[in-house]
Amino acid sequence: MDSxxxxxxxxxxxxxxxxxxxxxxxxxxxxxxxxxxxxxLDELAAAGSTxxxxxxxxxxxxxxxxxHFVLFGYPSDIYPGRVVxxxxxxxxxxxxxxxxxxxxxxRVRREPDGTLKLLNHFADVDDAVCRELAAGLEAFTHGGLTxxxxxxxxxxxxxxxxxxxxxxxxxxDPFFTERPIAAVLPLAxxxxxxxxxxxxxAVTAFLTHAYEVFREAGPIGASAEGPTESxxxxxxxxxxxxxxxxxxxxxxxxxxxxxxxxxxxxxxGIASELGMEFRPVPAIADPRAEIxxxxxxxxxxxxxxxxxxxxxxxxxxxxxxTKDPSHKRDVIASLDKGLSL
Length: 341
Prior knowledge:
Blueprint: E1 11-16, H1 32-35, H2 39-47, H3 64-71, H4 82-89, E2 99-110, E3 116-120, H5 127-135, E4 140-142, E5 145-153, E6 156-162, H6 193-217, E7 232-242, H7 250-254, E8 258-262, H8 265-274, E9 277-280, H9 287-303, E10 308-313, H10 315-321, H11 325-338
């Protein structure tokens, strides 16, 4: 409410992540959204305004984390990096003095020439194995920098680099499987080239050390005689470089009490870092049931006085990953039924 006693209307933002798509021959040249039976979405579109919003400008496709950061009103130049949100979502408090990376316990194959090729981002081992291996990696010092790994669960962890590290370095994720693990390198436009070079070297040395430790432990593919030059093993894929920042809260930025209704580590962390309430709803396999549960929690949030509620469904995006346009069409139709509340 402003000084004149005016209270702006509450906002309900529903994101159906991954709703857009390309035209598919299997759907008669239509996109899954066009082909789906969706009377509720059609009615909403007819009653309002439709268009395309480029959150970072045309030609750029940001990930879920950065896209929401900008949608919530934050300028992209103060974006701290996804790892900061992921860490917060796991209950890990980062220091602004440290540079951090998300670490995935991945599976790699060592080729005869020494190249490591990514086989799977998430190795087929139990969390207990990952936890034990992480516990065996003590703080590692290289070039005056100290590198540590904290296991956070679900075959993931957080790597921190302290002692004057730079976040202006690349990660080592090749993104696609059967591709070589990438080198960690300083950015060409690093603000402190020396610190960036030392950081890249320290992270590379730590990842190499961890790989050798994992090979000796042999949780995957070790021979009876011990590790071999061509065996498969675990490797820490370091990605999403970032550094914690002092960010204005969502309330300070917008003047509204905000909440996120979703599930998962990322949105829990975004809510934590932006001072928003996190109202979790368990993941539900059926898209209609899930969106109904999400909206029910959102309605309850509005009744509690929350002025901005963000509802996030990843169902269309997950359906898109199957590369089956008919399945995605059906998921959208199911979501539409759930939106009829």
